[in-house]
Specification:
Length: 104
């Protein structure tokens, strides 16, 4: 919601007014949804994970496409919020979803 409000009024005042809402659910909690697979050098979602289709077994599902993209987009949005507020990009937010070409 904060992102949509900012898009309607893209200025520093809006970013500052909404920053408390944005950072009350810190992007670090989004990073915690995945774990780093050091053997393959990438982040992995699941298991357990229930994909949007809700018909795959949670304990057998790895890296569902929609969830990977949604997760990567959330981390990218968090980086933009940091920049809007004059903060440095978070270093661990740049290597995200396996298979996502936007982040490497």
């Amino acid at each position: 919601m904060a992102e949509l409000c900012y898009r309607a009024h893209p200025n520093r005042e809006t970013a500052e007014a909404l920053s408390a809402m944005w950072f009350s659910n810190p992007p670090s909690s989004w990073r915690s949804f995945a774990y780093f697979d050091s053997k393959n050098g990438r982040y992995v979602l699941g298991p357990p994970v229930i994909p949007a289709q809700e018909n795959h077994p949670a304990r057998e599902t790895w890296n569902p496409t929609f969830e990977l993209e949604y997760w990567a987009d959330a981390l990218d949005t968090a980086q933009r919020w940091r920049e809007r507020l004059g903060m440095a990009r978070h270093p661990s937010g740049t290597t995200c979803a396996p298979g996502s070409r936007r982040f490497r």
